[in-house]
Each structure stands twice: as structure tokens, then as C-alpha cells.
Automatic annotation (TrEMBL):
The keyword Transferase applies. The keyword Transferase applies. This is protein-glutamate O-methyltransferase. GO terms for biological process: methylation. It comes from the Bacteria.
């Protein structure tokens, strides 16, 4: 891969997905795109770049998806799901008692382990949720991972990562070496292809937004913009859940940390930062390693 090819890919990925690669991430592109070049029947990354420059939109889509597909597993990091069970749901059950409905958005749903972990968490609450209606929306940039999520089919390796054995037995059916999550849980999750760089107001407003382990790949200005739009997509007393390496601190005042709960935030009622505000804020380096 030549320096010119690398710069072309850096710009393409930033424009199409928000992924902000630093100048020393050639190894990351090679690890993701060399297998893709073989799959596409071309000699290497340089030929992939030439096809994209020649107007191959299908190659461009595959390159972006290969670079933005994140690792995920059931009940990843545990703490956010403890917050969901012990803090978020008890508060929302009180606050939403009049309407008995809650909307949840997994803003980087990937292959489905996060939204299905939330669905299992809800089912495990049992009789306390009788008469309530829940809507879980899972979105992702990649249509390929959304299709896997819709199928709810996982390998033995995937179900062994983070999923308690009692939940595997309770909510999955084995078919040879694969496991499929129950139709009831699959029916609890709706899927939408969505790029966080684009307008998502059409999704409506949510009581809970999980937006974990995706913003770390964006630059500061993009993060500020997305936080502002997430705030507008959330009920005034809703909850935002970020990944362990993500924070709003030093970036925006539209969310405030929930006391003593790492990764948990609430709307502050403050206005979203304008582009001029963003430009005036101190630069914070984006984390781009995986």
C-alpha cells in the first residue's frame, strides 16, 4: 500500500463513516482490507483503491463495512447491563408508569449481541414488566452485520463469550454447531441501516440510548455533533450509555454524568454546541486503535 493509497483511504473512510485514522494506522487497514482484496479477486489494496477511484460503489461499500465492523459479544463489559437493570429500569418504571412503554436505541448494534442482551435483561425482569411495551431499535452502518443480527444465529464460540449458560439454555435453540435466539426475543428487536453521520431524527425519541464503542473512532468535531443530535433524540429524563473509553466530559454540556455510574449520562437541558463552539474547544485526540 503506497502512502498515496493510504491517504485516499483515510479520506474516504472519514467522509463515509466518520472513522478518523491517524497517520500510523496502515497496519489496521492492511489487516482488514487484504482479506477483502482476496475475496474481490484483486491483487491487493492498491487495486481496490483503483477500482474505487474508477467508480466502483460496491467495492467502496465493502471497504467501509470491512473497516467499521466492530467486535462485540453478549453482555459486553457487564457494567452497562448492571446499570440498565439496577438504575435505568427502576427509574423509568416509575417515570413511565402512566404510559407503560419504553423505547431503546442501540446505535451501533453490530451483529446483535447488545440488543439481544438488553432483550434478555428485560425478559429476566419477569412479572415486574407485565403490561409494559418495549421497543428496541438496533441500527448499524453495515447491512451485512444487520442481516446476521436479524437471523439471531451464532456460533458456539460467540455464545460462549459473555452469555451465562442458564440464558443460553433458556433463550436459544441449538442446531448442529449453531445456536439461534428464540423467535420471541428476535421479535423484540427492530433493525435499521443507519449512518450516525447522517440525520437520524426520523427514528423519533428514546428513553434509553446505548451508543457504545463507536464514538472513539470519530474526531472531536464529529463527536460533538453526534452528541448534540443524540440529545435531541432523547427524552428529557432519558439515559445515554457510552463505552468504557468514551465520555462527554470536555466535549459537550448537553449531557451530564450520572453520579457514581461509569459510562452513564443524562440530558442536562443545555443547548447543543454550535460549530463555532466546537471550533473554540481544545482539541482532544481521537482514539483510533481497536
Amino acid at each position: 500500500m503506497t502512502p498515496t493509497d493510504y491517504e485516499y483511504l483515510r479520506k474516504l473512510l472519514k467522509d463515509h463513516s466518520g472513522l478518523d485514522l491517524s497517520a500510523d494506522k496502515q497496519y489496521l487497514i492492511e489487516s482488514r482490507l487484504l482479506p477483502l482484496s482476496r475475496k474481490c479477486g484483486v491483487s491487493g489494496i492498491g487495486e481496490l483503491v483503483q477500482k474505487m477511484k474508477g467508480g466502483s460503489s460496491s467495492i467502496t461499500v465493502q471497504v467501509v463495512e470491512a473497516m467499521t465492523t466492530n467486535e462485540t459479544f453478549f453482555f459486553r463489559d457487564k457494567v452497562p447491563f448492571e446499570h440498565f437493570r439496577d438504575t435505568i429500569m427502576p427509574e423509568l418504571l416509575k417515570a413511565r408508569a402512566g404510559r407503560k412503554s419504553i423505547r431503546i436505541w442501540c446505535a451501533a448494534g453490530s451483529t446483535g449481541q447488545e440488543p439481544y442482551s438488553l432483550a434478555m435483561s428485560l425478559k429476566e425482569m419477569g412479572a415486574a414488566l407485565a403490561g409494559w411495551r418495549f421497543e428496541i431499535i438496533a441500527t448499524d452502518l453495515s447491512q451485512e452485520v444487520l442481516e446476521k443480527s436479524k437471523s439471531g444465529i451464532y456460533s458456539q464460540f460467540e455464545v460462549q463469550r459473555g452469555l451465562p449458560i442458564q440464558l443460553l439454555v433458556k433463550y436459544f435453540k441449538q442446531n448442529g454447531e449453531l445456536w439461534q435466539i428464540s423467535p420471541e426475543l428476535r421479535g423484540m428487536v427492530q433493525h435499521r441501516q443507519l449512518n450516525l453521520l447522517h440525520d437520524f431524527s426520523q427514528l423519533g425519541t428514546f428513553d434509553v440510548i446505548f451508543c457504545r464503542n463507536v464514538l472513539i473512532y470519530f474526531d472531536q468535531e464529529t463527536k460533538i455533533n453526534i452528541f448534540g443530535r443524540l440529545a435531541k433524540a432523547m427524552e428529557g429524563d432519558g439515559f445515554l450509555v457510552l463505552g468504557a473509553a468514551e465520555t462527554v466530559v470536555g466535549l459537550t454540556d448537553v449531557f451530564k454524568p450520572f453520579p457514581d455510574k461509569r459510562g452513564l449520562y443524562r440530558p442536562s437541558g443545555a443547548r447543543a454546541a454550535s460549530p463555532q463552539d466546537a471550533a473554540a474547544m481544545p482539541k482532544i485526540a481521537a482514539i483510533t486503535g481497536r
